[in-house]
Fold these 2 entries.
Entry 1:
Amino acid sequence: MVATARFSRRCREVDLPVGFGSVRQRLEVGCRKRGCRNGAAGNGVAGKWGCRNGGGMATGERPADKRPGNDSIPLDRPTSARAYSWMLGGKDNFAVDREFMLRTLQGFPECVDIARQNRLFLYRAVRHLVRDAGIRQFIDLGFGLPAEDNVHQVAQRFDPEARVVYVDIDPIVLVHGRALLADNDATAVITADMREPESVVDHPDTRALIDFAEPVALLFLSTGHYLKDSDQVGRGVRHTVRHVIDEVAAPGSYLAFSQIVHDDPARGAEMSELAEGSGIPWQTRTPAEVDALLDGLEPVEPGMVNLRDWRPDPDQPPLEAVPAPLAAFVGATDEELGHYEYGGILRKP
Ligand SMILES: C[S@@+](CC[C@H](N)C(=O)[O-])C[C@H]1O[C@@H](n2cnc3c(N)ncnc32)[C@H](O)[C@@H]1O
């Protein structure tokens, strides 16, 4: 399958075979050959020569990526999207992401299981929302690097008319998302910070795809831990999570939420410190703290739980294989360590 992405006036139109390795290769070739220095509106990713049109998804480090003020793909620190994607079997990550994950796993070996349990929940949650709750429109906040069974693929399997707006702040996610979705009119990928929910609601692509007079599902999956109580951006965590569902969405809308929690706040603080020390904004909460964020909404059975226990389905489609360096960590959550992804689906009455 081939999708076409138009990058800018000075970059040629590039044919992108839909497949992530191919996307990367073609984008790199496209910009390197032309020595492009174009900073005009593209997909927001800085490349080898300072081009903002996609060439930066390289496998190695490049001088342009480190220039001060260059909002390129960071190669000197891990990103949450790339580290998480590696645990799902993704290929678009760098040594800095893998090193961060391996360091984290020394203290918290359960992270591989937690990530994979979250992604399996995503499938069950979207299936439930479309098949059982009749939802036809989704806003996926912090959608991450595409993996198996992305939201629109699950939703459209159960209703081909389902529409999805994908939102993320990470440039590498946006490049891959746009390439994947270029041929799907019922989806859009937008650059926005979920901490400013008004910018998501008011975005023209959101307005074109989402009818807020009808029920909508808002997905905050494995994103709550990036929302810190101390954050200076936006109007606070509660506003981030609740503004759209409370103020904008129609009754009968849903919020699916998950975040990493620890039953022991001291251990949770250690995890937060570890991630923050590597430049990833992070706040592990307790389940009670998450519950407090979601009060007043009606939990769908079985309520807010360890995601492993949210309507488990041994027959659901499997994820990609675990990368070999992570294989030893699989099964760590068989021991109850009090550290898990906590979440569920809630309905606006
Ligand atoms: C762990 S991934 C989760 C991916 C997907 N939701 C899932 O459950 O499989 C978290 C994503 O949230 C994005 N993210 C973090 N903070 C964000 C923010 N303030 N606004 C938008 N996206 C954000 C990251 O870039 C990353 O892609």
Entry 2:
Amino acid sequence: MAAAPTFYVVSGSTVRDVVGKNPDQIFNAVETAYRLHAAGKSINPDSYFLRYPEQPRNRIIALPAHLGGSIQKSGIKWISSFPENTAANLARASAVQILNDPTTGYPLACIEASLISATRTAASAALAAEHLSPGPRTASLCVIGTGVIARTTVEWLKARDWQFSQINLYDASAAEAERFGKWLHERYGAPAHVRHSMEEAVAGSSLIIFATTALEPYLADEMLLGRLSPTVLHLSLRDILPNVILASQNIVDDVEHCLKARTSVHLAEIETGNRNFISGTLVDAMEKRFALDFNRPRIFSPFGLGVLDLAVASFVLEAAIASKAAIAVPDFFSNSTRWQD
Ligand SMILES: NC(=O)c1ccc[n+]([C@@H]2O[C@H](COP(=O)([O-])OP(=O)(O)OC[C@H]3O[C@@H](n4cnc5c(N)ncnc54)[C@H](O)[C@@H]3O)[C@@H](O)[C@H]2O)c1
């Protein structure tokens, strides 16, 4: 008779510990998830958005997913975004990840997932930076929107041995940019320049991270990016106007997913009526299925696939169980036996 599984809870501090001790395995989990997804060994339905008509900036998103291959897990991430939290020094995003056994369907664990989400976003951005940039891992870095996602992305770039000749920061809140600059200095001894405008920060940069909470695109000047043909990690998805998208080479994580929800690439599709401006996915670029154009900006727009959270969470759960840091909840499924003989 099949027994119900032990249900585990994994805290944020355990997630942080596992991620910190296993960066290579986490990076590999993200790459594996992308490759399994590209090979059709995944199910990644559309994300589902809970929105509040009275508070349009707030939302909670459900990301269900399944991964086959070496992962064999199903699950769902349930992630809130409340940008005004930051005024009280509370993170914008909070989340849980449920993992399920795809054989019985039983939930296996509830894992704190804001760090999993930031980790998979940042690791996938670092993976993109490696594959979409012209040379070795050196750049003049620009960060627009200096919050949690930008900080985690810089951590992953540094963990992947990137060296920065210069770092320019811009945030709509100068205090946020100043705090980010202080963190960079304390953590890496890296001097950073806080700029007074997005234009000033972007100029002269060869690797640009957009991680703002902008709802509507604002970057309209094609020449601003065009001059240096940078690699652009457009993580916040809604900063760049369609004319700039159309003047650039565009790489996404998944075409169907990314051309939705009024992302910049979705707006470009609405404007042109076609998707010809998308060169392909990151895995297509990694597999050299199209040629990278180093004479134009290369913009990576990752919609953020639930399969990435699943792969990272699956690794974290196994490591947390192995180190006895996962908290077992005995008898969670106390009513699972259909008939008591
Ligand atoms: N693509 C993905 O897979 C993925 C995954 C996670 C988060 N995200 C996105 O990343 C973004 C950043 O998330 P976070 O957790 O770092 O948020 P955060 O609130 O910690 O930081 C966002 C920062 O952007 C600044 N900002 C807002 N609008 C700006 C503008 N127009 N110009 C300059 N700065 C601006 C804010 O002042 C804030 O400091 C969000 O939009 C989030 O949805 C994307």
